[in-house]
Design goal:
Structural class: alpha+beta
Number of helices: 22
Largest sheet: 7 strands, antiparallel
Distance between the termini: 76 Å
Radius of gyration: 28 Å
Helix content: 40-55%
Number of strands: 7
Strand content: 5-15%
Length: 427
């Protein structure tokens, strides 16, 4: 095997490209749709982070001295997405796969020096070549190209500008959510998942959403599961109580699968679809109190239910209480109270009860604190954190007792959240 030290330029560029990838991950904003998980950075993020971006065609692809690495030259026929002062003939791309001549590609470039003065003192000949240029060394790092289709190129060229109204931007991406090109549909989904709740609920956008199409997409087995969370959220905005039956049709079978026998001892490995939390939230939004009671009976009151279903229901109720807010928090908190009777999952919701200032559970938390066994002592730390957050005098009294009974749990609470002591001193 060849030593990497023989190719210092390639090695340097590889390190720089790794830094660029990490940078793109760090600048990725959090998505706003509370139950839609964005999959990655968007093409818009990549274009904004790059110093140059273009759509071009491969003129030549030749192997290099490094096995498995190819050098690509571009034809003069390019379309700038983000213009830079560089000629296509000056662009040298490296690829780990051979790309046929004439193939259309997306190319991103980064100004490695960012117009800085050269860090090291140049040689005499190098210094002479820099005269008249202010001592600036312009070096480009080109990311390995991405092969794109005509459809993807059209998508990139028609993408709304950053200055366009958010509602219009969202509509553009929503219309491309059903694209047959995975790169386009995945990017469109990421944009939809990160759109603000206010934008999703805007009158302009919802007027362009066809309810029948949303229902069809939810029923269609060809619709990727990762997209269905967004469609469930749209159903909640566009649907009515009569559409709650769709939950029984599509999510009901998964809830039945999640019911385990009381004498079952082995762990079941069932992969539930990622849209279950959004489906539960939509079910509650459309069905109201009766839907809440059904979730309570099926999930929260059933100690034998699979843990992933508990997580899904908790995530749904949390989003309902924090972002969506169609139901009063006090009602959702009463549903969470049910889980305090199950030490294995109680820690999931204690912080939510404190966030929602549902202070009526002090006695239940005290009982839970005392009833833990060696396998559930972890629940004591969030209980202590709850007591530290509560402003009632009885919480301060309980906190003193708990600190004496389990000083380690108290120290863990303070270590995790050192600045939330709000409990009132006992009188």
């Amino acid at each position: 095997m060849e030593s990497p030290s023989r190719y210092p330029l390639l090695q340097r560029r590889y390190v720089l490209l790794k830094c660029i990838v990490l940078f793109l991950a760090l600048i990725r904003p959090l998505h706003a749709c509370p139950l839609c998980e964005a999959l990655s950075s968007t093409l818009r993020d990549d274009l904004q982070a790059a110093s140059a971006a273009l759509i071009g065609k491969v003129l030549a692809c030749s192997p290099t001295e490094v096995p498995g690495v190819y050098l690509i030259r571009l034809s003069e026929e390019i379309t700038w997405l983000k213009r830079a002062d560089v000629s296509p003939r000056e662009i040298r791309l490296q690829s780990l796969t051979e790309i046929p001549r004439g193939t259309q590609i997306l190319v991103l470039g980064f100004d490695a020096n960012c117009e800085r003065e050269e860090a090291v003192q140049p040689s005499d000949s190098r210094r002479d070549s820099l005269q008249g240029r202010g001592g600036i060394v312009k070096e480009w790092i080109w990311v390995p190209p991405v092969v794109i289709t005509v459809q993807t190129a059209k998508y990139l060229l028609s993408m709304p500008s950053p200055d366009a109204p958010e509602e219009e931007r969202l509509l553009f991406f929503f219309e491309h959510l059903g694209s047959s090109e995975p790169l386009v549909s995945d990017d469109a989904y990421n944009e939809c998942a990160r759109a603000s709740l206010e934008t999703v609920q805007s009158r302009f956008f919802l007027e362009h959403v066809d309810l029948a199409e949303v229902i069809a997409k939810l029923r269609d087995i060809e619709t990727p599961d990762k997209y269905k969370s967004f469609y469930w959220m749209l159903l909640a905005e566009k649907g009515s109580v009569e559409h709650r039956s769709l939950f029984d049709e599509l999510a009901g079978p998964w809830l039945k699968v999640g019911q385990t026998d009381s004498d079952q001892t082995e762990t079941r490995l069932i992969e539930y679809p990622p849209w279950i939390p959004a489906a539960i939230a939509t079910f509650v939004r459309l069905g109201g109190e009766s839907a809440i009671q059904e979730v309570e009976a099926t999930v929260f009151k059933n100690p034998q239910v699979d843990m992933p279903l508990v997580f899904s229901a908790v995530s749904a109720f949390r989003a309902l209480g924090n972002e969506l807010k169609p139901v009063e928090r006090n009602r959702l908190a009463r549903s969470f109270e049910i889980l305090l009777e199950q030490p294995r999952v109680a820690d999931l919701i204690i912080a939510d009860l404190a966030r929602w200032e549902h202070w009526t559970v002090i006695s239940k938390l005290r009982k839970l604190f005392l009833d833990v066994d060696p396998e559930t002592t972890f629940v004591r730390t969030p209980i202590i954190t709850f007591m530290r957050s509560c402003p009632l005098p009885e919480a301060a009294e309980e906190l003193d007792r708990m600190r004496a009974e389990d000083p380690k749990a108290y120290r863990r609470s303070v270590t995790l959240l050192p600045t939330i002591d709000h409990a009132a001193a006992p009188k």
